[in-house]
């Protein structure tokens, strides 16, 4: 096969035009032919139905995908024959390496290629995150799936230890993934979180929101890709995560059908990619108190503080929200959605009784949560722009 051609720039996939001056976090996507690399990107960031991934063409040259989420990403989709020498960039330029292995494949060749890149990356940038997606997991029965996953894990580690015993402690993470369920979204979310320097602050805001809003679980999702960029300190339950993904997908599907009929000069219409305000629009923005959240139970009268004139995010910006009752029986559970930034949304699980009786105060808490998140994103953007 011919040598890899120079990298081509791929236009952003629906996340808006990337900032030209912004420094992007680079992610290297590797794997053998038909392992599923391009399918992963298209399903996550271009909303390609999983059944249509079968018709995707084989990647023949390095393609750079620009993706704007909580941080700007540049994901390099590579052909099967790429090597460290033909990549076109030093491995030290990348913050993470994702290697995709077909779970049904013969393991010798992909593991050899993976080990080659792990050794080279460790020399170029010690401590770089290595993520291994054992992909197409839907092809096997549960017992075979777990056994193949274990074999791949063991063989990679054994091969590395044979080269150097110190490689036993390299930060390598293995995930079972499939484009046909939410395992891909959950796994890629964990990869993304390691790249977000502001993650501790995002998590702390979610912890404060949950503690003061009686929410047992909350996620900060990227709206388009349905990756969660942060969550609170409580363990992630796959069923709850899957439910949030499905709800967000439903809102995305029907969002283009809705427009704000009251839109005028002082109010912007939501973009076609913004989920619909099926329940209620959030309150107008109030001044920044650096993420402070008002506790739900004690307050009764809320007086908005005057809006500072120089705030970066205008008061008139439209922030849709939505809610759905999951279990109508007592005590009941409600799943709520609130748009936080152009790319991010808060999805929180709440007792239905709290949502029904304290809805205004909950939305008031969302206002301050939104301001905290926006300040963090603004600071991240200023750092990347060199400001």
What's the short story on this structure?
The chain has eight helices and 13 strands.
3D structure, described in words:
- It catalyses: GTP + H2O = GDP + phosphate + H(+).
- This is GTP-binding protein.
- Helix content is 32%, strand content 20%.
- By secondary structure, it is α/β, with parallel strands linked by helices.
- Helix 5 runs antiparallel to helix 8.
- The N and C termini lie far apart (45 Å).
Q: What integer is the average pLDDT?
A: 81
Specify Rg, calculated over alpha carbons: 22 Å
- How much of the sequence is in beta strands? 15-25%
Query: What is the straight-line distance between the termini?
Result: 45 Å
Shape descriptor reads globular
- In which order are the strands of the major sheet placed? 1-3-4-2-5-6-7
Question: Which structural category do the helix and sheet elements fall into?
Answer: alpha/beta
Helical element count? 8
Number of strands: 13
The string of secondary-structure elements, in order, is EEHEEEHEHEHHEEHEEEEHH
The proportion of residues forming helix, as a percent range, comes to 25-40%
Low-confidence stretches: 1-21, 262-272, 274-311
Largest sheet geometry: 7 strands, mixed
